[in-house]
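seq:
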Amino acid sequence: MQTAATTHLAGQGWQSPLPAALDSPQTLVLAFGASQLDADAPALQDLAAAFPRSVLLGCSTAGEIAGDAVNDGSLSVAVTRFDHTRLVLAVADVAQASQSGDAGARLAQQLRAGGSDLRAVFMLSDGLAVNGTPLVQALAGGLGDGVAISGGLAGDGSDFRHTWVMAGGTLRPGCVAAVGLYGDRLQVGSGCEGGWMDFGPERRITRSAGNVLYELDGKPALDLYKTYLGELAQGLPGSALRFPLSIRRPDSDAPPLVRTILAIDEAGRSMTFAGDMPEGHAARLMRTTNDSLIDSAARASADALRSATGRGDALVVSVSCVGRRLVLGERTEEEVESVLEAAPAGTRHVGFYSYGEIAPGTAGAASDLHNQTMTVTVFSER
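struct:
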């Protein structure tokens, strides 16, 4: 396995030449870029020309991760040629959130057709038109146990207007794309940590539909949220990224999930989240500190690296939440640096700030949609 990484910066071009010699059917090219990029962007055309036989997969972001740096308006690229791992690209279009589960099922069908030795899936999804909960659940259910699923939802800075997914060199809105990795020599490690703390009273979700929340304790959810945010409510939905919701099933010992707002509806006094908000679940507001976020990123990385101890090069892909970046501000790069603290020298590291993160919540657990987490996936071969 050989891995190389480079970055295209606006006004400067490629920081190092594209490693076109790595092009092959067993090469995965991951590209994370600004939402303003379009199919005619020279950097994307360069990728398609340099890697005609490779599997190209990417998405728009709320910040591009390249090594220990976080950039805006760039294209962060990792090129990995596997020695013993086969790749299959699966694609499904989604016109509206209600089709998310069907999209996950269609991806699973395509990936199952690739062979019985499927070991891992890395999935990227439109960040606005998709409900990540049924998407991930349908994909995981269709693939069964033993397949590691990770990835994230595309971003658009803090604007929440437009996202794209790149599948096979084509930029597509309303798209979900996933690469399946096949073979028993592949090793995959994953870690997922939040670093957020609950505060305030616990409330019950009394009316919702999928990922749209209408009422908490019988009161309009948006009104309650505005009360808590005070002056920050003027910046909704972006300002809500600083105060996500923790949700849990009252009759379950499963750890809570964190949910982030994607949009608000003033007329309906409702809020749309990145994942399901089931009726009957308990919900609480959350907050954090800079140090807590940075420490949690280091824990996620350590967990992932512990499970992937292959030989030679390793590819580390970090998917963190846009809300974490807004909280961290000028300390954002400290979170990214903490991911690399336990990594071997020469490890290639790319990733992006997202509208939702996909990974197992704990070791051995099924993959799920998360918000406000740092998720780390490590790929290597033995």
